[in-house]
Amino acid sequence: MAEDKQKDKQKDKQEKKSDVKDKREKHREELKGERFTSITRILSTDIPGHKNICYGLTRIKGVSYSFANAACEMLKIDRKRKISSLSEEEVKNISEFIKNPNVPSFLLNRRKDLETGLDRHNTSVDLEISTEGDIKRLKKIRSYRGLRHALGLPTRGQRTKAHFRKVGKAIGVIKTKQKPATSEKGKKK
Length: 189
What we know:
There is one protein chain. The protein is mainly α. It has a domain at 39-107: Helicase, Ruva Protein, domain 3 (Orthogonal Bundle). The protein has helices spanning 2-33, 53-57, 65-75, 88-99, 124-140, 144-151; strands at 39-42, 45-48. The longest helix is centred in the N-terminal third of the chain and has 32 residues, at 2-33.
């Protein structure tokens, strides 16, 4: 009886393994029929092909989830599709939309720019240049945030007694070393 149970268990295991192998083979055959690329390049950013469009677009610097979601809505692209399933034309439409978005201003990352006064959306290199310019301006006008940036300390009000010790000058507790006491008996007159 115990031997029969063991044989049944072994048969069940073998059947499960064969079912898994069949599913893998079917999946591979389906992928052969489709145009499959492992990496898609949008706005000079490599995005893995297995990601959903909405999450994949967040890999681009300056594109948040909300902005990616709005882009999918405006371009009428299903958010759950994979990045690898996009055609060349769709990739081109997405990159054009990200460069010149037609969305409400609260989704843009550069509202009321100091130089132009316009609402803009910066991505990748433009975003890096604008943030560097902002930090340089803060340092130049000697604002509190600018001074914190210059010293390499946190700018958003975090405490520095225990953390941020390796970055800049620590402001927290500093113990001084005591000098050893000298006795008068050891001195010669």
